[in-house]
């Protein structure tokens, strides 16, 4: 039996990365990510795994982001008994991020069950709870970087972690399979940009048989801005947002992005480039992640300055729900940083509900906004949005700063792959939306980094044989799950939201009550005859 791989997630989407590798002697995963974004994609989190968790010998984890690690508690809950090998900082970050994710699952299900009860529907269980997540932490084992490692449960496999420059502790994982022939594989994980101010540039080996390459920004060419330029841009945006009765809301990922923004804001205020104003970090997760950052600051670029800024009294961290609610009563200009970065969950939604209608407010997006998320809808200039069942007219200024990316852009991805040459077999593009993957595939071929036909774009549950030095060969896969990427996006939930808004709009614009009633009668007739 040859070495095979199955794309169990992040296949033509940006979330849920998980690759199942099988050899005649063992079976393991690289990453076990949660699906995020549109509801049809999130539904995959409830689907059974396409393998039996107890048959998996180990997990090798690239980094702590939930779209790479988020289903590990479910894996453990459903019978996985092996170790999870990953870098030291990733172990520490997962120890705060996974229980938080469990808490989010519990909250989401609580709200859903409340609604379901009102509609007379049955209750659902969370994918996993905070307790399940805590239980899964026992499986984590910290590994050193840059060194070949062998594991008892993975006979015939060696693995080596390389810095991926994407976030604290992030890595690409090199695999060497010693079967009849020796096959060398590299999984990029998420790759950071060359201009990251926290992380050192990504590294990796040369001469491989197959490479799995992330493609989040495969269709973007973002000139690398240096740190001074980024701060200047942030300075301009904060100045523009400073309304005496307003607020600046910054939806941000709690880990790394929040700390980077805090560092820049505090530095700008301390040097007098922007007036001092309260900066509220409204996220228990960000508080804990900040502690992990302080602990590992030595491994960061600019570590000392970061440590000083994160301890500044200008920063207020709010832990409890009560403290969080009191932010709404704050007077005078203030800045609120809260998750989630794509506005599809978390405390930022309360702040958006409070401020989104107000012209005195500014919302500043700082990260990638996946299709179908509230963040993307706002950036796309939607005049009205729905938050927790309520329609809100957008009055706030919507701005974006793109300089905080944790991801390499297309030229950087191509350069990274070029530095891995020669690649004798296939290049698999994963972790990207189809347009980004198409663009990256075209660029790699046009630039001569990949041969025509060498680049593959696996769909969910596609399985391949990985031979030495020649292209991967597709193979039939048992237990295929429904592929949400094939269902088209935006998904029907987004379309429903748009339809409801259109109906409300039409009713509001109708000249009088009679016209409104006539319209509603027509809608009812259509539904009943459908
Ligand atoms: Zn990531």
Automatic annotation (TrEMBL):
Annotated ranges, domain Beta-Casp: 258-378
Residue intervals of the Metallo-beta-lactamase domain: 15-227
Segments of this protein annotated with the region Disordered: 464-491
Ranges of biased composition (kind: Basic and acidic residues): 473-483
Entry GO MF terms: hydrolase activity; RNA endonuclease activity
Alphabetical list of SUPFAM superfamilies matching this protein: Metallo-hydrolase/oxidoreductase
Protein name according to UniProt: MBL fold metallo-hydrolase
Organism for this UniProt entry: Neoroseomonas marina
